[in-house]
Design brief:
The chain is mainly alpha-helical. Helix content is 72%, strand content 0%.
């Protein structure tokens, strides 16, 4: 669901990226949209399952084939909206990281590159290390960012992500007694008006 932001950037600034990047974004978004629309109807999902039985044999594939027709498009559109908000925040964070390392490039490049970097993180790696930095270097060096600054952006993004995870981990590990709810006014003997 991250591709619409990149597509929007390409529509707003057609010369912002190489044609290869534009075709890659369009192809990924089109394939995802087509699959979701095909599976939104129960009869189409069953036809897709008959046409590609290997998808149904994989447990995750069967879950996906069952879920979309069961719930319909409304929850998918809601999750799509949440995804757009999340990705807008992700792009904002990357713009701040770019400014921190001295990469003064137009914001439209972030709209194109950040979704591609997010998709690249599905490749097997240890926490995305290496893949993320290579993606930052491969994309941002096309628009004049030095390889060192691009790699630094990737490492800073990893540091910010791990910092947030560390805070969440500490809160998760704290004793439950610290998180007792505050007593309500009735248990304190205060009369209600």
């Amino acid at each position: 669901m991250q591709m619409p932001i990149g597509i929007m950037a390409l529509l707003l600034a057609p010369g912002a990226a190489s044609p290869t990047v534009g075709w890659l974004l369009g192809l990924l978004f089109g394939a995802c949209a087509l699959i979701v629309l095909l599976m939104a109807r129960r009869d189409w999902a069953l036809a897709l399952q008959r046409r590609f039985p290997a998808v149904a044999r994989v447990k995750a594939g069967q879950i996906l084939l069952d879920a979309i027709p069961t719930y319909g498009l409304r929850p998918l559109l809601a999750s799509f909206g949440v995804s757009l908000i999340f990705n807008a925040l992700l792009i904002g964070l990357n713009i701040c990281l770019g400014l921190a390392v001295g990469a003064a490039i137009p914001w439209r490049y972030y709209l194109i590159f950040v979704p591609l970097i997010s998709v690249s993180l599905v490749l097997p790696s240890f926490g995305g290390l290496g893949v993320r930095e290579f993606s930052y270097m491969a994309l941002f060096t096309q628009v004049g960012v030095t390889p060192a600054a691009a790699a630094a952006m990737g490492l800073l993004f990893y540091a910010v992500t791990m910092g947030g995870a560390l805070v969440g981990g500490i809160l998760y590990l704290t004793p439950a007694a610290w998180w007792k709810p505050a007593p309500d006014s009735r248990s304190l003997g205060v009369e209600q008006p």
